[in-house]
Each structure stands twice: as C-alpha cells, then as structure tokens.
Specification:
Helix 12 links the parallel strand 11 and strand 12. The strands form two sheets. The protein has a seven-stranded parallel β-sheet, with helices on both faces. Strands 10-9-8-11-12-13 form a six-stranded parallel β-sheet, sandwiched between helices. By secondary structure, the chain is α/β, with parallel strands linked by helices. Helix 1 crosses helix 15, helix 6 packs antiparallel against helix 7 and helix 9 crosses helix 13. The chain is globular. The protein contains 15 helices and 13 strands.
C-alpha cells in the first residue's frame, strides 16, 4: 500500500528520542509499503543523511527548518492567536508537496508524527485515505508544566501556548481517524481534555532495539580510572533534561560525595548548552557533548539516573538502560508509561533526599547486570512485534485499545 508519512524532524540517524521512533516506523513500514516522506531538518549536519532516506522511501521532500523563517511564522501565529509551536513549522513548499502527493499518488493512509505536522493535512482528506495523527505526547500539558515555575511574562507565554495548543490538538483529533499517544496514561489524559474524540484515541507501545542495546557487547571503559559513574543520557539542549541534571549537580551530588568521593556524574548527550557545560566545573561532573556511541557510557556506569521533573510519554533512555541490564534511579514521572515490574529494581525518587539516598545505596552495591530488567524489555518492548500491531492500525484497524 501507499503511505504519506510526515515527521517534524528527519528520521535519520536514530540518535535521539523522536528520531528513534520515526526511524523504526519508517524502517518497518517500508518493508511492505511505498512511503512518501515529508520531513524537516533543524541541524545542518543532518543534510548528509538525506540520501539515506531513499533506502526506505519512494519519494522524499525535505525542508530546512529555518530559524529566521520559523520565528516570522511564530510572530504571525502570535497575531493570529495560533499556537507558536505549530506556527513555527508553517511551510508553503511542504504544504504544496503534500497536495501533490494526495492528488497524484493517492495514498491509502497518512501518518502524521508530531502534532505540528497535522496542519499540512487538516481539511484535505474529506473522503480519501485513512488518517493517523500520531501526537505521541499531550504537548499542551508540557507547556502547562513549563509555566509552573516561570516569571510573570514566561508564565503568560507558556499558559497561552498550552491553551491554544490544546484547542489545536482537539481539532486535529476530531478531524482524523485515529489519534495515537506513546502511552496509556497520555491517551487517558487526552480523553479528559477532548472527550468528544475519546473513541478515536489510542496509544502505541514504544520499542527498543534489544540487539543494539546488548549488555554482553564489549566496550572500552570511557570513564577515568578510580571513579564510579552514575550517568544521565539525553539531548542536552532540551529544557527538561537541563533542569534534571542541574538539580542533581546542585542539590544531590555534593551530599553523595560526602559518602562516596569517587562518584562521577556523567552527562552524556548532544548539544549541551552553556549552562550544562558550566556544570563540568563542579568536582565529579563529566559533560561529554555528542558521542559516537552512548552504550559504553551506560555499560560501564554503576547505574542510570533520570531525575526528570517534567516528562511526557515514555523515556527511551529508561528502556535502553533496562535493555542493558542497568539499575535506574528515577523520578516517578521519568518512569511514567512503562509497565511496572519489581524485578527491574528501579529506585523511585520523589525529592532530593530520595535521590541522595538511592545514589548512595547504588554505589554501595557491586556493579552488576540485572538480567530481569533486560528480560522484561525483550518481552514487552521489542520493536518488531510492537510495530506489526502499529502497522495494522495505520492501514485499517479501527480500535481504541492498546496496540
């Protein structure tokens, strides 16, 4: 069958949360279907991967997410009472390309990944292809959370975005055949916000490449000799991640160091902001920036710490850590959407005191692989089985059950 697939960011390479999902969807669906991909590039280094997309797609439209043009779109969105995160993506050429694909390729289904891509299809498919609005997270709630600890102007800004984005999300859900979220919790929340579309709201299950994240692969230890690392992995220009590691370094690490002076808190991830880089000035903090492979940093760590106070959906970094048999210290929000499994031995923290206690307890133990955690991931979060169910939804299953 023929699929029009829209993503807000190029789905290659699969080196961060959304790209892991969009790549695996593209990889799986391309085995049996013709894909026409419309996507955006927001980092110049990603232009080198455009040709790779043709290994999976029959045709490709790639537009540069130009910051200057995006800001102009956002300003217009401000005047038009539109959500700025959607207005930022307005693109005439992408809209025209979608029109062309709809007219000439007549796709059997349209998969829109991320809320902002819905605008390119909205109002164009009255009697045509099946439409799947893969919103992933309730983004309007994320902006509502952002407003909680901001000053007066930023609070107004984020509250405005939350309100208008919720209206947009509900409008998309009403227009399209199915709206899909990353977890049952996100889907349930959205049903309360948009009850008129409740029967069309479902959720999928995230996946992990369990062969890639294999703890038995042999990697050199990247950490300085004589240290015991607790690692955080994530894109370090993303505000929730910045807030998480700053909290740990400022309020947790100094207390843990009193008991375990050899602790190393490793912050591993691309595009660290200046604020994140400055954290490396603290004793016992390593900021790597982009690395060719995160697996050595996870494999040789005593554990993975996810002190996220703002988190939506399912955290890939939690699933990947468990796939490598690692103990996790995490807030409740960081584990939201993941099936409960006591055998994974995750240490759940509600506050700084919990993080301190759990970090010390982790370092008191020998570094060990938790085989039960890996088995749990293999049984419930392997990509291929999950995406076979997802493929059925995209091309015709009409269900509000978990897929």
């Amino acid at each position: 069958m023929t699929l029009l697939y829209l993503t807000h960011r190029i789905p290659y390479p699969p080196n961060k949360g959304d790209k892991i999902s969009t790549f695996n969807m593209m990889r799986h669906l391309s085995k049996s279907h013709d894909i026409h991909l419309g996507t955006f590039i927001d980092a110049d280094e990603d232009w080198q991967y455009v040709e790779k997309l043709h290994d999976y797609c029959k045709s490709v439209c790639v537009e540069k997410l130009d910051k200057k043009r995006g800001m102009m779109g956002a300003i217009k969105g401000l005047l038009r009472h539109e959500p700025l995160s959607v207005a930022y993506y307005k693109n005439k050429r992408m809209s025209q390309w979608v029109d062309h694909i709809l007219a000439h390729e007549k796709p059997d289904a349209i998969l829109m990944y991320s809320g902002c891509t819905g605008q390119f299809v909205y109002g164009k498919t009255a009697a045509g292809p099946r439409t799947i609005f893969n919103a992933e997270d309730v983004d309007s709630e994320k902006f509502r959370s952002y407003a909680e600890d901001k000053n007066r102007f930023k609070k107004w800004f984020f509250q405005r975005e939350a309100r208008l984005l919720r209206d947009y999300e509900c409008r998309m859900a009403k227009a399209f055949d199915q709206t899909v979220f990353i977890s049952e919790a996100e889907a349930a929340l959205f049903r309360t916000l948009c009850p008129e579309s409740a029967e069309k709201i479902t959720h999928r299950t995230q996946g992990v490449d369990v062969d890639y994240f294999d703890p038995d692969l042999d990697f050199a230890d990247p950490y300085p000799e004589g240290t015991r690392a607790i690692v955080f992995v994530g894109a370090m220009d993303y505000w929730p991640n910045i807030k998480a590691v700053t909290w740990y370094v400022d309020e947790v690490l100094p207390q843990v160091q009193k008991r375990h002076p050899d602790i190393l808190f490793a912050i591993v991830g691309m595009s660290p902001t200046d604020a994140v880089r400055r954290l490396a000035e603290h004793p016992g903090v390593l900021v790597t920036g982009s690395v060719p492979d995160v697996r050595p940093y996870v494999q040789h760590a005593w554990g993975v710490c996810l002190p996220l106070t703002i988190a939506r959906g399912i955290q890939n970094k939690a699933l990947e850590a468990m796939a490598m048999g690692k103990r996790i210290i995490a807030t409740k929000d960081a584990l939201a959407g993941i099936r409960p499994c006591p055998e994974t031995k995750a240490l759940v923290a509600q506050n700084s005191a919990d993080l301190i206690a759990h970090s010390c307890a982790l370092l008191d133990e020998d570094k060990a692989q938790i085989k039960e955690a890996r088995r749990f991931i293999i049984d419930h979060y392997g990509w291929d089985a999950n995406l076979s169910n997802y493929e059925t939804l995209v091309f015709g299953q009409n269900s509000s059950e978990r897929i």
